[in-house]
Amino acid sequence: xxxxxxxxxxxxxxxxxxxxxxxxxxxxxxxxxxxxxxxxxxxxxxxxxxxxxxxxxxxxxxxxxxxxxxxxxxxxxxxxxxxxxxxxxxxxxxxxxxxxxxxxxxxxxxxxxxxxxxxxxxxxxxxxxxxxxxxxxxxxxxxxxxxxxxxxxxxxxxxxxxxxxxxxxxxxxxxxxxxxxxxxxxxxxxxxxxxxxxxxxxxxxxxxxxxxxxxxxxxxxxxxxxxxxxxxxxxxxxxxxxxxxxxxxxxxxxxxxxxxxxxxxxxxxxxxxxxxxxxxxxxxxxxxxxxxxxxxxxxxxxxx
Length: 304
Hints:
The chain is of the alpha/beta class. It is built from 12 helices and 12 strands.
């Protein structure tokens, strides 16, 4: 992160890095593989992403705390593999993503790693860095199960772009956000130039994209980046509760809503309504819809 050695952002990162080194990693919780169901100890695990489980909710923890969970290629690739596994696991209904170490969700892309890609020329850099990051955020955005971000600290650059892509989010009141790519003389590359204006509005998004200045959790709430701001101690329980709230409903209805919203968000209203129509039509004739309608009719008869 030495490329950001001027200004407030560098001070925020340096301070958090020192605190993260002192705090270390998460505790000795148990991780559960979505493939085998086998419990493995997460303490001391150097995997780029840790996997834990709370009922039907999988918790993915970005796990490079000494680097403030900077997003390297191994982390991106591992997230893609895990999302593929989670999508196929019918016992999993929702996902929570957070960061290890307590000080950062993610401080952004691993600058040392992607600098090497940039040095290899535009074609290589686009393929290895930009396309990889955009594929991840697109996968998150269009994932058929709700993904909730629990923002426990710094969410800068690529970390903020993951936040922009998830379906729901909760932030600790101490969390800090920024779009600092302009300070590297580049635009965001994981979708931030497109998603943030759609979420926050063009002028409010450009204020952050063009200045790179950090902003706090209340500002993130006002921009629509997060759904709620809570104390650090309440963060994970609130995020898991939010995720569990989506599991009360049928997985097919949840997936239909997510698909209609994600596919229609950047289209003219006429095309977007066609996506809504397709999402509904895909449920017609399925047991879940028939049972839902029958249950509603039965309730109405009992009330009359």
